[in-house]
Amino acid sequence: MKKIGIFAGSSDLAIPYFRKDVERLADLLAENKYSIVYGAGKVGLMGVVSQRYYEHNGVLIGVVPHHLNRPDLVFEYCSKLIVTKDLHERKETMENLSDAFIVLPGGIGTMDEFLNVLAGKQLRYHYKPIFLLNSDNFFSFVQDMMRKMCSHHFIHDGHKQLYQCIDTPEELVEELKQSL
User: What tens digit of pLDDT does each residue of 65-106 get?
Assistant: First the structure.
């Protein structure tokens, strides 16, 4: 069973904007028998993913740093919960366990996780697919940032091929199936 690492925001205030697409993504991942590796949260979009995926009886692997391993934050029905010493170990564990990555809308932590696996792929530490679910055109700023870095010669056009920015859960899962 292929494991999909999911990076997602933890703000409950963002749920109304993205719930529909995130739930649809969880449905499609379950239908296609993927396991999910994620930050173990029950809040924000992480909570939407975990609750919906749990309803499908999917394998849900939560990875959480010990200082965030609290009942008010961690989804209690993870199939497996891995507690790490810190955020760095959490990212490393998630990267090692995952066969591909899906980035959902989120904040600083989500972008940190995305840029971490993106840099790892750029440096050829891994060759795993990376997808951004571009719900409500959320990731247009990433596309703009990549164009700006390219125009100033910090990266080249090939670096923009290290990830795919996809607008719908259906298209994303089709690309995921083709890449694994």
Answer: 999 999 999 999 999 999 999 999 999 999 999 999 999 999
Q: Supply the pLDDT for residue 158.
A: 87
What is the span of the domain harbouring residue 93?
A: 3-179
Please choose, from the candidates 160, 27, 39, the residue with its C-alpha nearest in 3D space to the C-alpha of residue 107.
Answer: 39
Which amino acid, one-letter code, is at 165?
C
Entry pTM: 0.96
Structural domains of the chain, count = 1
Helix, strand, coil share of the chain (percent; to 5): 50, 20, 30
Tell me what the mean pLDDT of segment 5-26 comes to: 96
Helix (H) or strand (E) holding 115: helix 108-122
Q: Which residue matches tokens 């999917």?
A: 58
Average pLDDT over residues 146-171: 94
The domain spanning residue 63 has which CATH number? 3.40.50.450
Q: Say how many C-beta atoms besides its own lie within 10 A of residue 103's C-beta.
A: 26
CB 70 within 8 A of CB 34: no
Q: Cα-flanking dihedrals φ and ψ of residue 98, to 5°?
A: -90, 145
Q: Which two structure tokens, joined as six digits, stand for 104?
A: 């959902």
Spatial separation of the C-alpha atoms in residues 170 and 21, rounded to whole Å: 9
